[in-house]
């Protein structure tokens, strides 16, 4: 069954740097650009689109969906183009996540919660919007046509929680600093900012590019943490396909944030005194 798309792709107009395009369409927004998150100079094939409608995402502090960090399939980027709101539209080829899909549904793309703005089940693809803020704060800016991405639909009340509570709100990006095989498994070490690393604990949960993983060790002196991917997982997620110095999206366990908030608010002291 085909669904009428809300956007009409136009022929490719050539290869153009996403950095230059990002500056040209978002110059006002980029006045407060964080230099710690420097976009890649990789190029993208951009096909310009003029969507009839655009579904805006709610504020980031609104919990509208939940994921488990168990990747359902790897999709492939078909097309990237500018949208009327000054951001980008991204078309992704997929099959599993299109089962029962509706306009406005949430799908995590490399761990980033995005809204479906168009889909076609006959062509096996769907479109999501990328705001300038999303490009600044995530590793999605490094994607290009042909890139593979982790995909997961929002969890339903009847679903099994195979991973952990993942909101699809990226806390920051990390950088892969080493990838070392051991038998058929793969050790991966990621460097992260201090703001993110303070929530990472050995044997705790973390979502890396939307994949629920167990942290093995934390190296505070190196500002790094590591994890291991077994052979099965290596075949199901995009992380092993990346290279040293590639960016990955990181979302820490939300429980750590709540604990920090309670401690800083004096809740524990007030509870003891009562």
From TrEMBL:
Superkingdom assignment: Eukaryota
Keyword flag Repeat: yes
Pathway assigned in UniProt: Cofactor biosynthesis; riboflavin biosynthesis; riboflavin from 2-hydroxy-3-oxobutyl phosphate and 5-amino-6-(D-ribitylamino)uracil: step 2/2
Lumazine-binding repeat ranges, renumbered to this chain: 66-164, 165-263
GO BP annotations listed: riboflavin biosynthetic process
Any Pfam family hit: Lum_binding
Keyword Repeat appears in the UniProt entry: yes
Assigned EC number: 2.5.1.9
Molecular function in Gene Ontology: riboflavin synthase activity
Alphabetical list of Gene3D superfamilies matching this protein: 2.40.30.20
Keywords, ordered alphabetically: Repeat, Riboflavin biosynthesis, Transferase
Span of domain Lumazine-binding: 66-164, 165-263
PANTHER family membership: RIBOFLAVIN SYNTHASE (PTHR21098:SF0), RIBOFLAVIN SYNTHASE ALPHA CHAIN (PTHR21098)
Role this protein plays: Catalyzes the dismutation of two molecules of 6,7-dimethyl-8-ribityllumazine, resulting in the formation of riboflavin and 5-amino-6-(D-ribitylamino)uracil.
Name of the protein described by the UniProt record: Riboflavin synthase
Organism listed in the record: Malus baccata
Organism lineage: Eukaryota, Viridiplantae, Streptophyta, Embryophyta, Tracheophyta
């Amino acid at each position: 069954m085909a669904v009428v798309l809300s956007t009409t792709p136009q022929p490719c107009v050539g290869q153009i740097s996403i950095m230059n395009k990002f500056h040209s369409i978002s110059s006002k927004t980029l006045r407060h650009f964080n230099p710690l998150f420097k976009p890649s100079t990789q190029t993208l094939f951009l096909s310009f689109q003029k969507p009839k409608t655009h579904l805006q995402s709610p504020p980031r502090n609104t919990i509208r969906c939940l994921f488990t960090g168990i990747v359902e399939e790897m999709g492939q980027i078909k097309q990237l183009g500018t949208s009327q709101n000054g951001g980008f539209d991204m078309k992704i080829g997929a099959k599993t996540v299109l089962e029962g899909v509706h306009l406005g549904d949430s799908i995590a793309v490399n761990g980033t919660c995005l809204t479906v703005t168009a889909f076609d089940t006959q062509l096996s693809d769907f479109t999501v919007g990328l705001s300038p803020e999303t490009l600044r704060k995530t590793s999605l800016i490094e994607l290009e046509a042909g890139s593979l991405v982790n995909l997961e639909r929002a969890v339903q009340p009847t679903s099994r929680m195979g991973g952990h509570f993942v909101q699809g709100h990226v806390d920051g990006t990390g950088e892969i600093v080493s990838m070392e095989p051991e038998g058929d498994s793969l050790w991966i070490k990621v460097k992260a900012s201090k703001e993110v690393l303070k929530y990472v604990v050995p044997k705790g949960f973390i979502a890396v590019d939307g994949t629920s993983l167990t942290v093995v060790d934390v190296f505070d002196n190196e500002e790094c943490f590591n994890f291991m991917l077994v052979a099965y997982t290596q075949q199901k997620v995009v992380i092993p396909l990346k290279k040293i110095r590639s960016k990955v999206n990181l979302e820490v366990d939300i429980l750590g944030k709540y604990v920090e908030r309670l401690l800083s608010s004096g809740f524990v002291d007030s509870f003891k005194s009562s």
